[in-house]
Amino acid sequence: MTALFLLAQAASTAIGQPAPATGTPFGKWATVRIEPALGETHTEIAIGTIRDDRGRKQLDYWMRREERDRQGDSLKVSWADSRSCPAMRPVIEAMRDMGTMQFAPPGGADNIIVTMDGTMYTLEAPGRYESGHAGTIRIKANVRTPLADWAERLRSDMAGCWAAKAPLA
Predict the structure, then answer these.
(1) Rounded mean pLDDT of 39-45?
(2) How far is it, in rounded angstroms, from Cα 81 to Cα 44?
(3) CB 166 within 8 A of CB 25
(4) H or E element: which one contains 58?
(5) From CA 151, how far away is CA 73, in angstroms rounded?
(6) Global pTM?
(7) What span, in angstroms and rounded, lies between the C-alpha atoms of 27 and 66?
(8) Domain residue spans in the chain?
(9) What is the Cα–Cα distance from 164 to 12, expressed in whole angstroms?
């Protein structure tokens, strides 16, 4: 099953997707953005799969964190991987448990909380329906949401894991 996932991932990366950033290990499948409304910089974290470790029967993951200024220029790039950072796997697994938003077309009698400033969080990652059909989920939310909590956990738990060099496959 894992091999099938990696093969599908390779096909989706090769067909109709932009090429990975130079030096990016194989298998990018998620992107997290943390964009403070009043901040001078924002963070983009790519998450991907390095390889299937058949001996331990699990996937190895990498993350690439890029700090950018308000104009989008790159200020700093750093890397981490699950082989040297034990905090990475629990953070990735917690993505599965994050509460999801409900669609809310305009016109309902819902109470909507609007935050004018704060931090905008975005997560784009693979998802699937209960029926098993796969797709891509993109969530964008502000502070005091399950996405914000998860993204801040990622930032906090991974703080000591970042290095200047990309992990080797």
Answers:
(1) 94
(2) 16
(3) yes
(4) strand 58-69
(5) 22
(6) 0.80
(7) 17
(8) 2-10+26-97+120-157
(9) 28
